[in-house]
Design goal:
Length: 140
């Protein structure tokens, strides 16, 4: 299998985003049998992302860490054990917890099959990229 590299937004310390975010390149390694390879298309920037970068969010990935709580992408490869998705499917990567942290502000990511949700074709991708954090919030 061909190794690939990606660009992603990353931070090694907490602070003001304009001071601590850097664009970095890394090798992605080998796609695991239970993973999909996603080309990221859109990734929202929302208050939760800024809070996370500054170190004020209720949960924080261990530093150093990639950034981006949510996004949408297109599957460009599937591991051997993938049964729910196909190449070409659009998926969102909802934020779950720091154990499943991906970092959606990237050109490409590997994600476990169970950590993706397929996007129905009637939802615009720009909207899908931000539908897992802020839109579900409601005022009671």
């Amino acid at each position: 299998m061909t190794r690939t590299s990606r660009l992603y937004a990353f931070h090694h310390e907490y602070g003001k985003p304009e001071l601590v975010i850097s664009l970095e390149k890394s090798e992605m390694g080998i796609l695991a049998p239970n993973q999909v390879h996603i080309q990221m298309l859109y990734a929202a920037i929302n208050p939760a992302d800024i809070n996370m970068c500054e170190g004020y969010y209720y949960t924080q990935p261990k530093l150093p860490s990639p950034l981006g709580n949510e996004g949408v992408g297109k599957i460009i490869a599937c591991g051997d054990d993938i049964s729910s998705f196909s190449v070409g499917d659009h998926v969102i990567i909802p934020f779950k917890d720091k154990k499943h942290w991906v970092g959606a502000w990237a050109t490409e990511v590997y994600v476990n099959e169970e950590d993706c949700i397929q996007v129905p074709s009637f939802i615009p991708l720009e909207q899908a990229s931000m539908m897992t954090i802020n839109p579900p919030t409601t005022k009671f």
